[in-house]
Write a sequence for this structure.
């Protein structure tokens, strides 16, 4: 058998210790498939004394992960530390500059610095791979960049954050409120102590920006992802959606937008993470718990659905080691499916002309005339109302929940209606707006 591929692992937390376990458990099978063994040559983390549930004594311990970038016996550095900058980015730059291939599970770093790192990897003739960074164990990067490579991808969308999906589907099953379910999710280890990146949609936005780059061959624009999370979703929204035949899911959507019809066609990159209403018979409606799912629509393949565990030690390690097997076989590939200089630079699309139906929910004072003001604003902005629902009194006393569903129309009209209502005492609190996904 050929010489082993020597790897250094930086970070031995959930993902890193999973990678050690997987490589040890499946060593023979991996060596046969990779046509050479994959050998852990060095490991590093912060605390050498921590029990990680795996025996690290056979491996060289490095106090500083950056040392793996310069050791001549190391072929590939695997980063599982996390963070968009800091030690992870230093390690990435150093490893690639030293001629090491680089594998990472770090979506934040790739979303922010992926283009720079891809260009550096091309210049150095090494691989940069990050299958684990998007949707954990689901091979969606390989699926899009290889399996779907012959297609023009029209749209890619999906459930990209397991924590949010767990919270929303648990709220749906139990009727409990967001804060209550979040606290439980933290106790059970489904949510971080600081859940901001997850519940505010930032983690999903990192993944969406990466997916869009690969699906469309465009330069990554994380800064241009319209992002809102699930903190504003009430138990009442979930029950209301259910009564209308929908479930609520945090959906990331990206597509190439062709501008307003007749208004000078212009290609723009549309990227949005936002809670959506999903029809109960849509494939994404049955994606429950911490599962992730990605839908890609290609001009020849039609609709493809990827679904599976978006996080966890086993699934994420599976994606990391798949990248290592590619490298062991000599398959470097291009990080974003084509050379970075050829990725198209697109400006963010203006979403105002996008057509669709929306769910709007207001918390309003319980007094006569409020509903008339809301409907008048809708009428003046050209929004046509399909159904109007007034719920009972809110717990806060003196307030009621009012929700409406619009007919198909431009998003700009809804924005205009909200602008008219902004600052009026009819709408004391910011409304929640959720797009409705078509079947
Ligand atoms: N967890 C998942 O299911 C999952 C899924 C997909 C992608 N990811 C990504 O994978 C990466 C790692 O996630 P994780 O969940 O495994 O994180 P984690 O459990 O917090 O582990 C992080 C590891 O990095 C080490 N570390 C932190 N700062 C360091 C420093 N300055 N120098 C050296 N080592 C340092 C920690 O060392 P100590 O253990 O000594 O403290 C720990 O071993 C992140 O980018 C994450 O977004 C995670």
């Amino acid at each position: 058998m050929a010489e082993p591929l020597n790897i250094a692992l930086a970070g031995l937390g959930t993902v890193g210790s999973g990678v050690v376990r997987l490589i040890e458990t499946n060593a023979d099978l991996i060596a046969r498939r990779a046509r050479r063994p994959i050998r852990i040559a060095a490991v590093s983390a912060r605390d050498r004394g921590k029990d990680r549930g795996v025996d690290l004594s056979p491996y060289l311990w490095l106090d500083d992960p950056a040392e793996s970038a310069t050791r001549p016996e190391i072929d590939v550095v695997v980063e599982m530390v996390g963070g968009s900058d800091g030690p992870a980015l230093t390690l990435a730059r150093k490893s690639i500059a030293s001629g090491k291939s680089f594998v990472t599970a770090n979506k934040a770093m790739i979303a922010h610095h992926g283009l720079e790192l891809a260009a550096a990897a091309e210049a150095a003739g090494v691989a940069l791979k990050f299958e684990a960074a998007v949707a954990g164990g689901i091979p969606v990067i390989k699926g899009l960049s290889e399996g779907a490579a012959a297609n023009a991808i029209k749209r890619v969308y999906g459930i990209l954050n397991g924590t949010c999906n767990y919270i929303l589907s648990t709220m749906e099953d139990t009727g409990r409120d967001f804060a209550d379910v979040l606290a439980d999710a933290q106790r059970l280890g489904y949510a971080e102590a600081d859940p901001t990146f997850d519940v505010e949609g930032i983690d999903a936005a990192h993944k969406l920006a990466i997916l869009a780059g690969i699906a469309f061959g465009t330069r990554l624009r994380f800064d241009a992802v319209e992002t809102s999370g699930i903190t504003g979703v009430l138990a009442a929204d979930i029950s209301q959606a259910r009564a209308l035949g929908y479930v609520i899911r945090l959906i990331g959507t990206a597509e190439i937008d062709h501008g307003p019809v007749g208004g000078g066609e212009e290609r723009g990159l549309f990227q949005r993470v936002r809670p959506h209403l999903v029809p109960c018979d849509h494939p994404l409606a049955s994606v429950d718990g911490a599962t992730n799912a990605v839908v890609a629509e290609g001009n020849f393949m039609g609709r493809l659905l990827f679904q599976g565990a978006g996080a966890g030690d086993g699934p994420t390690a599976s994606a990391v080691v798949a990248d290592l097997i590619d490298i062991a076989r000599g398959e470097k590939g291009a990080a974003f499916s084509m050379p970075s200089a050829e990725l198209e630079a697109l400006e963010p699309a203006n979403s105002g002309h996008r057509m669709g139906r929306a769910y709007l929910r207001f918390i309003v004072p319980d007094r006569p005339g409020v509903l008339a003001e809301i409907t008048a604003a809708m009428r003046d902005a050209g929004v046509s109302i399909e159904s109007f629902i007034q719920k009972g009194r809110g717990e806060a006393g003196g307030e009621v929940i009012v929700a409406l569903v619009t007919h198909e129309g431009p998003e700009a009209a809804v924005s205009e209606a909200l602008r008219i209502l902004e600052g009026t005492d009819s709408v004391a609190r910011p409304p929640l707006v959720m797009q409705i996904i078509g079947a």
In short: The first strand starts at residue 5 and ends at 10. Residues 11-16, 44-47, 50, 65, 80-82, 87, 105-107, 132-133, 136, 311-312, 316 surround NAP (CB under 6 Å). The chain is about 35% helix and 25% strand. The two ends are 52 Å apart (CA to CA).
